[in-house]
Amino acid sequence: MGPGPSDVSERVLKALSQQTVGHLDPSFVTLMDEIKSLLQYAFQTKNELTIPVSAPGSAGMETCFMNLVEPGDKALVCINGVFGGRMKEVASRAGAKVTALEFEWGEAVDPAKVEAALKADPDISIVAFVHAETSTGVRSDAKAICALAQQHNCLSIVDAVTSLGGIDLNVDEWGIDAIYSGTQKCLSCTPGLAPVSFSQKAVDRIKARSGKSDSWFLDLNLVMGYWGEGVKRAYHHTAPVNSLYALHEALLILHEEGLENAWQRHSQHHNALVAGLDSLGIKMLVDADIRLPELNTVAIPEGIDDAAVRSALLQRFDLEIGAGLGKFAGNAWRIGLMGNGCNKQNVMHCLSALGTVLAEQGHDCDPAAATTAAEATYA
Amino acid sequence: MGPGPSDVSERVLKALSQQTVGHLDPSFVTLMDEIKSLLQYAFQTKNELTIPVSAPGSAGMETCFMNLVEPGDKALVCINGVFGGRMKEVASRAGAKVTALEFEWGEAVDPAKVEAALKADPDISIVAFVHAETSTGVRSDAKAICALAQQHNCLSIVDAVTSLGGIDLNVDEWGIDAIYSGTQKCLSCTPGLAPVSFSQKAVDRIKARSGKSDSWFLDLNLVMGYWGEGVKRAYHHTAPVNSLYALHEALLILHEEGLENAWQRHSQHHNALVAGLDSLGIKMLVDADIRLPELNTVAIPEGIDDAAVRSALLQRFDLEIGAGLGKFAGNAWRIGLMGNGCNKQNVMHCLSALGTVLAEQGHDCDPAAATTAAEATYA
């Protein structure tokens, strides 16, 4: 129950461990096509270029910037946590002139400020932001920000590492141009792959580049030859075959449940967890209207030893919760309710274990009352 | 029995499918340390910076160039197949001024020509070449080339994707500065990771860079904080936890067998395969003294339909052999004997199946005689 990797189901682990076949084997090419379709469903898009990059989510971020940025391009990067800051760094290394738009930690990206920044500099051609900030547990209004990007003739780049499969996300309806995610959050697949999707406008820009991307490995003009249409696939690199078996299975599970049911489930168990945490006297750090149900950032109660609590939870209760990251280090915990790990049993286990450890440390709380409060939300 | 991914053992697949833990979990940090030690053994090095990059072998190549090259650095890139050509491309994108030294396909890199090129341009500071060319099945003399690099004050970058665990390789003794490999060849792990190792001289150069690497994801100055010494690890990206379980097991298997025994085994079964292929009237494309035992490149007999044979082998005999790549496309097959797949049973199965299909296509050969010829080499 940390900020990811989340619990991986037995079904996904079993798929992962099937015998490895060649990355150009006809049966594998069929599986690749199915992965593309299932990813289109998860992203809610018809984008042809919807594939998993053969590396973790951070490489998905780099894929977006290294392919869409040409040296000197102006990019507006919104920063309301660690991952917005990482976007700035990656965009700069790709050669962008970055305008950083900073927000307080724990707050969402403000569309009004995005609009003002775009009006102030008409040369900006890329708008980048994080949909679900894993460092703070904040959801930003991706639909509004992408609409502004379109109005100002900008491409949008969206970090959906922690949002895909956990909260409302609609790539085509919202007009997102480039989006990346990870497999180890709400998809509950093993870590190591980065699903990405690109609009036709983004693909056109990639195809029309005046110079090559700095990265050969992430160059979509080459990667498209392997993941493209038809049976004939051009070898680019050796695909991580087994990890793709696992992703296929994880996406199948999401499809079976249905996207909206998955979003609803995350919301339901989040409500139960919040009720229980409230009963324990633990404060949420993020306002209710912009909270991520899948990642709950809470204030560490005064006088409580951060590391000692997390260590006790891990050693005695086999429970991982996340430390604070960046500005929140030492002040916050991050409790994940992601994908396969987002269920009632985990909510109750967390409240019970956390309440027990906190009470031992002198915090005034009643674990039994917390689980009762959580239980009441399911009624 | 293609050019990789090779057969993955049940032991490795079982390790792969263990439950995912957090990438900062204390138990995982212990496993990371063991992986580093086991990789040091496999590479025969004491290099502290010996780790698996969280992406396939091509990303290992990119890691070497993106970290060691600064814009304008002169690099000598030796090309005797597809992967030397890829090195040139990756080096150029990293900003190097590349001098390409080309050799015929099927021939080794000639150290005398490397020496002449280094003498001709004293500004060259990097020498890059492929130890085991997967596109041709050729072994180059890494020891001699790296010695020349040292004499001329150059760093050496060595592609060991297909050599690690299959043939003699000694990073420290040969004075290799930067080396990368893949997991899916002679280590017989699943594809998706790139073991790399860097000498102190290379690390010093990386630490002393005047500008940042273009890639944030592959920036070793950051990655070192996660894979570095001690219990305290700085989060960089979410490591591919399950793939690392598998690599740990694959390296353990190699350690149990012993490196020299593994090299010997590859040589032994290669000799058997060659005897059988000779009996079938199939010619090796590479001279015996520079042949890779783990990757056997053979001429497709005249009048034989390349695709039809490979398709029949796959569909009727559950056997993959590799197509020719690059200049060898349509003219050659590549028969892998890698890692776990390098055994007598596979040699016999391949000779029998290939002989049967070729005979059906009108090629004059006797599958039974081929297996008898192979069998005789084991005596």
Overview of the molecule:
Two copies of one chain form a homodimer. Chain A is an alpha/beta fold and 379 residues long. Chain A has two domains: 10-256, 3-Layer(aba) Sandwich (Aspartate Aminotransferase, domain 2); 259-377, Aspartate Aminotransferase, domain 1. Helix content of chain A is 44%, strand content 14%. In chain A, helix 2 packs across helix 10. The first copy, chain A, is globular. At the A-B interface, helix 1, helix 3, helix 4 and helix 10 of A face helix 1, helix 3, helix 4 and helix 10 of B.
SSE topology:
The structure is a homodimer of 379-residue chains.
Chain A: H1 10-16, H2 26-43, E1 49-53, H3 57-68, E2 74-79, H4 82-93, E3 97-102, H5 111-120, E4 124-130, E5 132-133, E6 138-139, H6 142-151, E7 155-159, H7 171-174, E8 178-180, E9 194-198, H8 200-207, H9 220-227, H10 241-257, H11 259-279, E10 295-299, H12 306-317, E11 322-323, E12 332-336, H13 344-360, H14 367-377
Parallel strand pairs in A: 2-3, 2-4, 4-7, 7-8
Antiparallel strand pairs in A: 1-9, 5-6, 8-9, 10-12, 11-12
